[in-house]
Amino acid sequence: MTATADTQAGPITIETQPSRRKRKSSKFVQALPYLIPALALYGYFVVYPMIDAVRLSFFQWSGFRTESPVFVGLDNYVRLFTEDPVFWKALQNSVIWVVLSLLVPTLLALLLALGLNRKMRGRNLMRSIFYIPSVFASITVAAMWRWIYNPTLGLVNQVLEAVGLESWTRTWLGDPEIALYSVFAASIWQAVGFSMVLFLAGLQTVPHELIDAAKVDGANAWQVFRNVTLPALRPTTVVVVILTIINSLKVFDLVVGMTGGGPAQSTQVLALWSYTQSFTNHSFGMGGAVATVLLILSLALVIPYMAWSMKGEDK
Amino acid sequence: MLKKTKWSVAVATLASVGLVSACSGGNEAAGGEAGGEVTVWMTTQEDTQKAAWDELVSTFEEQNPDITIKTEARAIDAHKDALRQVAGTNSGPDIYWYWEGAGLGGELVDVGMSKDLTEYYEQYGWDDRFTSAALSSVTQYGGYHGVPWTQQAQAIFYNKKLFEQAGITELPTTYDDLVKTAETLKGAGITPMEFGGTVNWHVMRLLDSLIETKCGADKADELNTGDGDWGTEPCVTEAFTELKTWADNYLNEGFMAISNDDSSQLFFTGEAAMTIEGTWFESNAIDGGMSPEDIGIFAFPTGTERLYGFGEGFYINAESDQPDEAAKFLDFITSTEGQEIAGNAWAALSVNKDVKPSGDSVLAPTWNELFANAEGIYTNNDQNFSTAETTEYWRVQNSVLTGDLAPADAGAEFQAFRDANQ
Asked: What is the DSSP string of B180-226?
């Protein structure tokens, strides 16, 4: 429905709400055929398996098509929390991984981005060098670092021996006390480049006039960073933190490739333990329960942070 | 403009319908195709094995031009995972190679992945072809599941030159002798025994043999395949204590951080004097550069006179749509002609009782002797246990090896898991 009013400038057409709604609805119908394939694929390959994993956590099932799942209610969760000898270790390792990932590679990435944002010779080359590891497949990184850590032929121990630090040599991936951190070091090497690029992109959006104004007002380098650069990097930081949390919680291939979760499950993490329970131990109910815990943990970490950061943006 | 929009909407709709139908059409074609291709899944083969396998396939295809054999090989753990993932579906192979023990082959039999081959045993007269030891592995689940491929035994492989270098003139016949041998080798600056700890089943061979040694045959069987209590048996603690002693004193440095492939290099290159390996290892060692004359074997001196071993077989998938062609291929590779092509690439002794040991194998006579003198077989525990129990067994084993768990607590820890997961 359209109402028309005559004015000196000519007729003004005022669209009523039903008309706008109609046009929106018509646009939606037109868009639907384009959306259906992607929605169908997303629903089938992402949403359905996620819901099904949660559903499976209430069943006992060996994973074979020839055997029917048996509903066991919360039994899998009770077993997971009270009887599973690996779950708590995997949870602890996942939490350690998230905390370290938020601290070490994120901070390193920010420092690198700040350093490589300055005008200097070889800047693009340096940026490429730091970024390259993040384009490698994790399993390739794992293979490389496994060799680097090899107790007899590996680079780390050989270098330590060459500089007279034999007492520092270790079986980096064979000692349960340090294996997780050895794998994490490889993760830093791989992850820092990607966050660095995000921070570099964010730094290009920091208004120069604000920095100049701060300098004119007598702000030193730290004050400029603290009061101008860092607030301007807030949207980028939100993205980096969220991606880091998600990537940390789902870390899998690097651990599989370097230690397989060993020695003695000391590098086990939730994502790998969910896989192991399902596809190695053939206990899909337990695997689903671990995956559900992982999902809840991810949402519990990401949603409050997103809500907090969006609130900050609104202000 | 409106026409254009309508046209593009129509094209997009058709495209989406086409995409969906294309997906379903692809599946239909794959499922409905009735060709002469037989798919075989097996583990990645060493050079000698691959050459022998290729010859087996090409000879069979020459004799049966209407059948094509397509082989897909994976690493050991990937092979296990792949089979578990396709069990009970129509995505699996026609034939799969697998270990015959209850925890592995038996599990797939339980879930109906293996076809009962009784009709083919009658058709091809396979009952008369195989040795009784080999046949017992395929009849243990009722009916006939699988066709025997190897009857493997594992023993201590040793480097004769390194033994000589350390002044060892007699092979150990008791466990105490074995420890003394290790001590002598260590004293001579030689790593006594090598293992790769990242694949848990490698060091497990030492633990399994120590359980057999300290508990004896009957008790070991109760513990491994019966309802024996790991938490209350003093022999279990003794076995774990010995395991820790070996880890601390006689195994290669950093063994927990390397794989069996990496640790085998230490044996091939003469840096480690012993390892526990199977009948397949002779060809691996030769491929790895060792001279056959330098390799010797002796049974782990458990004192029970049982040999450490297991069987491997080829199974026909119950979901296969060409079991006849698959059976024909299995008949060929286990026939006298096929086994002569196979030679000693997989094992020193053939499962076909008409095939004499290959003259190429230096160790075949010793294996023959070991089999002849053995008073039974004790099987690898990853074949005895369920997969979940195996995962826990390895965790406990590795916790003891790394010092995170006291040997005295290991048995109870494992038993607690078994009790909770019955």
From this structure: HHHHHHHHTT-EEE---SSSHHHHHHHHHHHHHHHHHHHHHHHHHHS
Q: Render the burial of B148-157: b for 16+ CB within 10 Å, e for the rest.
A: bbbbbbbbbb
Closest approach of B250 to chain A, Cα-based (Å): 16
Mean pLDDT, consecutive 10-residue stretches, chain B (422 aa), reads: 46 40 35 69 90 96 96 89 83 94 86 94 95 84 94 94 96 97 97 95 97 97 92 97 97 92 94 94 90 95 93 94 96 95 83 80 86 86 90 95 95 94 78
Omega before residue A263 within 30° of 0, cis: yes
How much is the ipTM here? 0.76
Interface test with A, best of B2, B16, B20 (most A CBs within 10 A): B16
As a whole number of angstroms, the distance between CA B216 and CA B376 comes to 13
- Using the CB atoms, write b or e for A201-234: b if 16+ within 10 Å: ebbeebeeeebeebeeeebeeeebbeebbeebbe
Fold of A85-314: MetI-like fold (1.10.3720)
Closest by Cβ to B395, choosing from A34, A83, A264: A264
| Sequence spans of domains, chain B | 38-152+310-363, 153-309+367-420
Are A85 and B84 inside 8 Å of each other by CB? no
> Which residues on chain A are in Cβ contact (under 8 Å) with B9?
30, 33
Task: Identify the CATH homologous superfamily for domain B38-152+310-363.
Answer: Periplasmic binding protein-like II (3.40.190.10)
Q: Return the CATH architecture of domain B153-309+367-420.
A: 3-Layer(aba) Sandwich (3.40)
